[in-house]
Amino acid sequence: QVQLVESGGGLVQAGGSLRLSCAASGFTFSNYQMGWFRQAPGKEREFVAAISRIGPNILYTNSLYANSVKGRFTISRDNAKNTLTLQMNSLKPEDTAVYFCAARSSILALTTTTYDYWGQGTQVTVSS
């Protein structure tokens, strides 16, 4: 069955960096669009970043970022290792949240936030 397992969360000081990973299994990872979301206490889950798949007519991946993380976070994928990564730099206290990776088989605009599968999340805490 489809499984998404996040790792790499932790406690970091403001201005620091963390690298989140999402290990995917149970599906053909390279065929899926992938995304990162986060949910802070008392708030709704929000979009962080998304990355497209590479296909027969799609030679390069595209990525999309929320305005709040643009220029600080980088999403990437390693199809050979079935791994999605989120490199987070210049972290701010407002980045504190549980971070989730998500997958979908449909080829949709990256601005679409509907996904088929979700991981359990990893906690990121940024102290001031």
| Percent in helix | under 10%
Strand content: over 45%
Averaging pLDDT over every residue, what do you get? 94
Distance N to C terminus: 40 Å
The topology string of helices and strands comes to EEEEEEEEEEE
Total helical segments: 0
Describe the global form. globular
How many beta-strand runs?
Answer: 11
How would a crystallographer describe the biggest sheet?
7 strands, mixed
Radius of gyration: 14 Å
**Low-confidence spans: pLDDT under 50, at least 5 residues?**
none
> Which structural class best describes the helix and strand composition?
mainly beta
Structure description:
The structure is a single chain. With 128 residues, this protein is mainly beta. Helix content is 0%, strand content 48%. It has no helices and eleven strands. Strands 2, 4, 5, 6, 9, 10 and 11 form a seven-stranded mixed β-sheet that branches. The mean pLDDT is 94.
Topology (SSEs and partners):
Layout: E1 3-7, E2 10-13, E3 18-25, E4 33-39, E5 46-51, E6 63-65, E7 73-78, E8 83-88, E9 97-104, E10 117-118, E11 122-127
Keywords:
128 residues, 0% helix
Short overview:
The chain has 128 residues and is mainly β. It is 0% helix and 48% strand.
